[in-house]
Every structure is written in structure tokens, then in C-alpha cells.
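Lecture notes, unit on binding sites. The following record was shown on slide 14. It pairs a sequence with cobalamin.
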Amino acid sequence: MFHDVPRAVPAGGGTDDGSAMTPQFQTTHPLPPEGLAQFQLLRDDAVRAVAERFHATYAAEYERFGARGREATREDLAFHLEFLRPVLEFGLLQTMVDYLRWTHGVLAARSVPVAHLALSVEWLAEYFAAHMDPAHGAVVAGSLRAACAGYVAAAAAPTVAALLEEAWPEAAQFEAALLAGNQRDALAVMTRSMDRGATLVEVERRLFQPALYRIGERWHANLMSVAQEHMATAMVQALMAVGLSRSTPAADNGRRVLLACVAGNHHSVGLQMVADALHLSGRHVQFLGANVPATALVQQVIEFKPDLVGLSVMLESQLPGLKRFLALLAERLGDARPPVMIGGMAVNTVGAVVLGYVGADATAVDASAAVGAAADLVSGGAA
Ligand code: B12
């Protein structure tokens, strides 16, 4: 039933069709396609109207930020709606709850008053309730309010603690070297690990990945600058190339893999790790990097004829675009479409249930797991 006001499924519950759902992942009823189309048409106007309402209501407070303040308000509201889209399309309420918790953390760490966050969500809800067909408007407003209630009730933003258990003790030293921009020390930590017999895939998973996740947390908490984050990423990318040059790939097993970050995803390092792991396992890998436009990606699939396509999705707001891309691929290639494996933080957060929403074939949590999943997907493929 689309027309009911969405209700949050209790944490640990399932979807209405009884399919397995990642524990703690809250869902709502999605909007039907015509409701989604109406939402899309109204997005820009909603942002403009709610931004105006803020500036009219809090004129004195917003005055001091000038034109840039107005632009920032509009950007923030547009971002809210980006993250609302997977809620409306797939019913993934939790993505919006997590996003609001994350945004709260960003604002609080930068001493920006957070009270307006919940208010902005409420005003968006009021806008859509007033401007859409009543049944669709009720779903959009209900989703926004349910997400806001989930955010207000939540104690703290999710952390990467579980992943850090995978980290080697020297990951802390590696992270310190990245923060200091000390390539010599960073290289020394990596070299010691590889001299001890660790593979590049292990080094990437247990040194580089945890350090980058921690750096993300530090950026979120306003404990480091954007420049430092860029520097750390660039250093890791250079070290990955060094590590690759001292690793010997398995013999060519004749398998071909095409890897890309979906349009809008600028996070390429994780997928580069997947590329390294698949290359070292004997596959011929084409790695297209960040933010690949859908039409260019389809064309490359047609030309390269991979046995497997791997796509990386970092933010949940990128899931609707992934679904559209997979539909386009199926339309262009029909039965000849190769299997598609997806991964990245958004996929790990939502869990394997996301496959059904977007129409992909498999997921893997990290680069090591990607090698096994690739072998399973491509029949007769060597691990
Ligand atoms: C570096 C970085 C950037 C760089 C990326 C540069 C580059 N060339 O990659 C830049 C500056 C571009 C960037 C931009 C932004 N970022 Co950023 N970024 C990061 C950071 C610090 C590290 C990313 C990374 O390399 N991680 C390490 C890799 C190894 O991990 P991974 O990607 O998860 O990959 C592993 C698995 O997921 C899996 N995997 C990945 N892809 C695939 C694909 C397949 C097929 C398979 C099977 C597996 C798989 O295997 C990988 C290896 O094991 C993260 C922190 C974090 N937690 O990751 C934030 C982070 C992801 N960024 C964040 C944000 C908010 C942004 C921006 C919105 C910031 C802004 N306001 O501009 C933009 C968005 C850009 C966009 N539209 O994509 C947030 C996201 C929060 C959220 N969940 O909503 C994070 C988590 C930081 C934080 N803690 O707040 N970012």
C-alpha cells in the first residue's frame, strides 16, 4: 500500500515481503513511480521555498552570512533531498536517519547551531505535503518526519570501530605518517609489512583502509583539514602503486573485469584496492576510476566485453543512479549483460538486501572478499 503514511519498521524487523534485512535497518513504504516523478519536479522549488522561509524567519541571524550563507542553506537543503531519494525509491529510511546523524556531527564539530537541522526537515515535509498529490505528499512528509524522529532518538553517529579491529597495530603509526605528510615513514611501515611476507591486499586492508576510515572520522569531527585529507589520499595512492610494483600477479586466467565508480562517486581508492586484488589473482582488469558517466560506462562494457562488471558506491544517495545505470545496461545488452558485483560503503551499510533494489548480482565487503565473489559469479572462474 503506497498511500499509507510511512511507518518505521522496528529495528531488526524485516521488509513487508519478509525478505532478510540488515539488522537495525529501518524501512518505510516507497513512493510509486508517478509520485517519484512529482517529487523530482518539485525538488528545486522545495529548496528555494524552504531557504526563503529560513531567511525570512531568521533574517537577523542569517544576515551576517550574506550571499554565501544563502547559497550554503540551499546546498544543505538539496543534500537533504539527495539522501531522501533512496528512502522514497526503495523505502530505505535508515539511510536518511544516518545522514541526519552524520550532518548533526559535522555541524556540532564546527560549532554551527544544530537546532535548525530538524526544523529544515520539518519545513521540507510541510512543503511536500502542501504541493504534491495528497497521497504522495503524505508519503514524502511521513518519510521526512520518520527520519527526523529516528535521528532525534539516536544516541550517536555510527562509528568504524568494528572495522578497526581488523587493523594491524602499526596502522596507527601509518595514520600518523599520513597526517604529518611524511611519505618516508609511511613507506617504511608498508615496506616492513611486505618484507615480513604480507601481501599488498593484506597491507591495503589492514593498514591503508583503517587509516583512511579514521581520517574520515577525524575530518567529520573537524580535527583535520580538507588539505590533510587530500594529502593522505594522494600518499596512499602513491604507496599502492609502489606495492603493486613489488607484487607478482598470478598467471593470466583469461577472465576480464571492468571496474568503475558510479556517476557522482568521487571515492576511487577502495575500488582501486579491488582492482589490485583482482589483478593479482590473475584477471585482466580495466579500472575506470571515479565518477564514470553512465553512457560512457555502458560503451566501455560493450567494447571491452568483460566477464564481470564491478561498481563502487560510497554514499546511499548514489543508489538510485546505480539502479538507473543497471537498467540501462540491461536494456542495451539484454541477455548478453555480464554479471554485476557492487560494493563500497553504501552497499556495506545497507547490506546484501540492496541487490534486489538496484538489480545487481553480488556484493563483497572488501577487496579480499571481492576475489571470492568474482570467482563465484563467473562460472568456472578460478579464485
Ligand atoms: C578520501 C575521501 C574523499 C576524497 C576521495 C578521493 C579519491 N580519489 O578517492 C574526496 C575529497 C573526493 C571526498 C569527497 C567527499 N567525501 Co569523502 N571521504 C574520503 C575518506 C576519508 C576515505 C575514502 C577511502 O578511500 N576509504 C578507504 C577505502 C579502502 O574504503 P572503501 O571505499 O570503503 O572501499 C573498500 C570497501 O568498501 C570495498 N569496496 C569499495 N568499492 C567496491 C566495489 C566493489 C565492486 C566491491 C566488491 C567492493 C568495493 O572494498 C574496498 C577495499 O577493501 C572517507 C572516509 C571513509 N570512511 O572511507 C570519506 C567519506 C566517505 N567522505 C564523506 C563525504 C561526506 C564526502 C563529501 C560529501 C564531502 C563534501 N562535502 O564534499 C564528498 C562527496 C564526493 C562524492 N560525491 O563522492 C563521508 C561520507 C559520510 C556518509 N556516509 O554519508 C566520509 C565517510 C567521511 C566521514 N567520516 O564523514 N572524500
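Take-home: The longest strand covers residues 256-261.
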